[in-house]
Amino acid sequence: MAKRLREKSAARKANADKRPQATARYIRISPDKVRIVLDTIRGESYINALAILKNTSKAACEPLIKVLNSAAANAENNLGMSKSDLYVAECYANAGPILKRVMPRAKGSAARINKRTSHITVILDGAVK
Protein backbone atom coordinates (compact mmCIF):
# COMPACT_ATOMS: atom_id res chain seq x y z
CA MET A 1 0.00 0.00 0.00
CA ALA A 2 2.81 2.43 0.83
CA LYS A 3 4.30 1.91 -2.61
CA ARG A 4 1.05 2.97 -4.26
CA LEU A 5 0.91 6.10 -2.10
CA ARG A 6 4.51 6.98 -3.03
CA GLU A 7 3.70 6.49 -6.73
CA LYS A 8 0.62 8.71 -6.46
CA SER A 9 2.65 11.39 -4.65
CA ALA A 10 5.37 11.28 -7.32
CA ALA A 11 2.77 11.51 -10.11
CA ARG A 12 1.11 14.48 -8.38
CA LYS A 13 4.47 16.28 -8.14
CA ALA A 14 5.25 15.57 -11.80
CA ASN A 15 1.89 16.98 -12.94
CA ALA A 16 2.00 20.00 -10.62
CA ASP A 17 1.43 23.39 -12.17
CA LYS A 18 4.81 25.13 -12.50
CA ARG A 19 3.37 28.62 -12.98
CA PRO A 20 3.93 31.18 -10.19
CA GLN A 21 0.89 31.81 -8.05
CA ALA A 22 -0.24 33.39 -4.80
CA THR A 23 -3.33 32.92 -2.67
CA ALA A 24 -4.93 35.15 -0.04
CA ARG A 25 -7.37 33.32 2.18
CA TYR A 26 -10.16 34.50 4.49
CA ILE A 27 -10.30 38.03 3.04
CA ARG A 28 -13.30 39.84 4.55
CA ILE A 29 -14.96 40.95 1.32
CA SER A 30 -17.64 39.25 -0.74
CA PRO A 31 -16.34 37.08 -3.62
CA ASP A 32 -18.84 38.76 -5.97
CA LYS A 33 -17.25 42.16 -5.32
CA VAL A 34 -13.76 40.72 -5.88
CA ARG A 35 -14.77 39.02 -9.15
CA ILE A 36 -15.79 42.37 -10.66
CA VAL A 37 -12.23 43.65 -10.27
CA LEU A 38 -10.64 40.32 -11.27
CA ASP A 39 -12.47 40.42 -14.60
CA THR A 40 -10.71 43.69 -15.46
CA ILE A 41 -7.16 42.37 -14.91
CA ARG A 42 -7.52 38.85 -16.32
CA GLY A 43 -5.19 38.43 -19.32
CA GLU A 44 -3.36 41.72 -18.71
CA SER A 45 0.39 42.02 -18.28
CA TYR A 46 1.66 42.34 -14.71
CA ILE A 47 2.55 46.02 -15.15
CA ASN A 48 -0.84 46.89 -16.69
CA ALA A 49 -2.76 44.89 -14.06
CA LEU A 50 -0.93 46.72 -11.27
CA ALA A 51 -1.71 50.09 -12.88
CA ILE A 52 -5.38 49.16 -13.28
CA LEU A 53 -5.65 48.10 -9.64
CA LYS A 54 -3.94 51.24 -8.34
CA ASN A 55 -6.32 53.48 -10.29
CA THR A 56 -9.56 51.62 -9.52
CA SER A 57 -11.60 52.79 -6.54
CA LYS A 58 -12.94 49.46 -5.30
CA ALA A 59 -12.37 47.95 -1.86
CA ALA A 60 -11.15 44.70 -3.44
CA CYS A 61 -8.16 46.41 -5.07
CA GLU A 62 -6.01 46.61 -1.93
CA PRO A 63 -5.89 42.85 -1.20
CA LEU A 64 -5.60 42.14 -4.94
CA ILE A 65 -2.49 44.33 -5.22
CA LYS A 66 -0.92 42.35 -2.38
CA VAL A 67 -1.72 39.00 -4.00
CA LEU A 68 -0.48 40.16 -7.41
CA ASN A 69 2.79 41.45 -5.94
CA SER A 70 3.23 38.21 -4.01
CA ALA A 71 2.76 36.11 -7.14
CA ALA A 72 5.28 38.29 -9.01
CA ALA A 73 7.78 37.93 -6.15
CA ASN A 74 7.28 34.15 -6.25
CA ALA A 75 8.01 34.19 -9.98
CA GLU A 76 11.12 36.31 -9.53
CA ASN A 77 12.62 34.59 -6.49
CA ASN A 78 11.58 30.96 -6.93
CA LEU A 79 11.52 30.57 -10.71
CA GLY A 80 13.93 33.29 -11.89
CA MET A 81 11.39 35.03 -14.14
CA SER A 82 11.39 38.74 -14.95
CA LYS A 83 8.44 40.83 -13.74
CA SER A 84 8.23 42.63 -17.07
CA ASP A 85 7.51 39.34 -18.90
CA LEU A 86 4.65 38.20 -16.66
CA TYR A 87 0.94 38.32 -17.38
CA VAL A 88 -2.15 37.28 -15.42
CA ALA A 89 -2.98 33.83 -16.78
CA GLU A 90 -5.70 32.95 -14.27
CA CYS A 91 -7.36 34.73 -11.38
CA TYR A 92 -10.38 33.72 -9.39
CA ALA A 93 -12.13 34.31 -6.07
CA ASN A 94 -13.78 31.42 -4.28
CA ALA A 95 -16.13 31.74 -1.34
CA GLY A 96 -14.65 31.26 2.10
CA PRO A 97 -16.53 30.63 5.33
CA ILE A 98 -19.51 32.87 6.05
CA LEU A 99 -19.74 34.69 9.37
CA LYS A 100 -23.41 34.54 10.34
CA ARG A 101 -24.80 37.43 12.35
CA VAL A 102 -28.32 38.35 13.50
CA MET A 103 -30.11 41.69 13.30
CA PRO A 104 -33.25 42.20 15.42
CA ARG A 105 -36.39 42.95 13.42
CA ALA A 106 -39.99 43.84 14.21
CA LYS A 107 -42.17 41.83 16.60
CA GLY A 108 -39.28 39.94 18.18
CA SER A 109 -38.12 38.28 14.99
CA ALA A 110 -34.59 38.31 13.62
CA ALA A 111 -32.95 38.59 10.22
CA ARG A 112 -29.68 36.92 9.30
CA ILE A 113 -26.71 38.94 8.09
CA ASN A 114 -24.11 36.97 6.15
CA LYS A 115 -20.61 38.43 6.32
CA ARG A 116 -18.88 36.71 3.43
CA THR A 117 -15.18 35.93 3.03
CA SER A 118 -13.08 35.17 -0.06
CA HIS A 119 -10.12 33.05 -1.06
CA ILE A 120 -8.35 34.97 -3.86
CA THR A 121 -5.90 33.19 -6.20
CA VAL A 122 -3.76 34.80 -8.90
CA ILE A 123 -1.71 32.65 -11.31
CA LEU A 124 0.84 34.35 -13.56
CA ASP A 125 2.61 33.02 -16.63
CA GLY A 126 5.92 33.91 -18.21
CA ALA A 127 5.34 34.40 -21.91
CA VAL A 128 3.79 37.73 -22.84
CA LYS A 129 0.38 37.18 -24.36
Explain how this protein is built.
There is one protein chain. With 129 residues, the chain is α+β, with helices and mostly antiparallel strands. The protein is built from four helices and five strands. It has helices at 2-14, 31-41, 46-54, 61-78, and strands at residues 21-27, 87-95, 99-104, 110-115, 118-125. A three-stranded antiparallel sheet has the order 1-5-2. It has a two-stranded antiparallel ribbon with strand order 3-4. Strand 3 and strand 4 (110-115) form a beta hairpin. Helix 3 packs antiparallel against helix 4. The longest helix has 18 residues, at 61-78.
Quick recap of the structure?
By secondary structure, the chain is of the alpha+beta class. The chain has helices at 2-14, 31-41, 46-54, 61-78; strands spanning 21-27, 87-95, 99-104, 110-115, 118-125.
Helix content: 25-40%
Please provide the count of β strands.
5
Structural class from helices and strands? alpha+beta
Q: Write down the overall geometry.
A: flat
Distance between the termini: 44 Å
Unreliable parts? none
**pLDDT averaged residue by residue:** 92
Strand content: 25-35%
Provide the spatial order of strands within the biggest beta sheet: 1-5-2
- Count of alpha/pi helices: 4
Instruction: Give the radius of gyration.
Output: 19 Å
Q: What is the helix/strand order? A: HEHHHEEEE
Largest sheet data: 3 strands, antiparallel
Could you outline the blueprint of secondary structure elements for this entry?
Layout lengths: L1 H13 L6 E7 L3 H11 L4 H9 L6 H18 L8 E9 L3 E6 L5 E6 L2 E8 L4
Antiparallel strand pairs: 1-5, 2-5, 3-4
Helix pairs in contact: 3-4
